[in-house]
Amino acid sequence: MADQPVCTCTCGRSEERRIIFPCAGQANTGQITNLAAIQLTEEGFGSIACVALLATGAEGILANATNADEVVVLDGCPMLCAKKIAEAQGVPVGQHLVVTDLGIAKGSSRSYTDDDVEAVVAAVWEGKGKVETKTPPEGNKQGKSGTGCGCGCGGGC
Q1: Residue partners of 61: CB distance under 8 A and separation at least 6
Q2: What is the number of alpha carbons within 13 Å of residue 25 lying toward its C-beta?
Q3: What is the dihedral of CA 20, 21, 25, 31, to 10 degrees?
Q4: At what angle do helices 28-42 and 114-125 cross, to 10 degrees?
Q5: Per-residue model confidence as pLDDT tens digits over 46-99
Q6: Are 47 and 18 in contact (CB under 8 A)?
Q7: I want to staple 157 with a disulfide (CB 3.0 to 4.6 A). Which of 7, 36, 69, 123 is the partner?
C-alpha cells in the first residue's frame, strides 16, 4: 500500500480551531460551564470566548466563531441561553452540552465539585454533544483555499 502524502499547513495551524462558549450563568451549573471551558482551554481543546460579547454581535467574535472549525456551546440548564445566543447570531454550533443532562442538578448555590467540572470536560472531549451542522461554503474557513493560507492541500489540513 502506498503511503499517503503528508499535508502540512504553512499558515501555522494543523489542528482544529475550536471556540468554547460557556453560558457562565449564576447557578452552580452555569459556573461549572465556565470552569469546564477554562479547563478545556488549558488542556488545548479550544479557546474560551465570551457569550455575552457574542450576544452584542461584535464583528470580531462573530468572525472568529464563524471561521472556527467547531463551536462548542456549554449550557448549564435547559434554558439553553448560550445556544440561543449563538443561533441568534447565526453561529453554527458543532457541539452542545447541557450540564443538567449529565446528571448534575441545578441549584441556587454556587457549589460544585471537581468531579462535576471533570464530567463536563470529559463529555466535551468525548464529543457527546456533537450536533449535525451544515458544511460552510468553500473558502469560508481560515486556512482553506482562497484565504491566503498557501498550504496547497486544498483545505484538507
Answers
A1: 49, 50, 53, 54
A2: 23
A3: 10
A4: 60
A5: 999 999 999 999 999 999 999 999 999 999 999 999 999 999 999 999 999 999
A6: yes
A7: 7
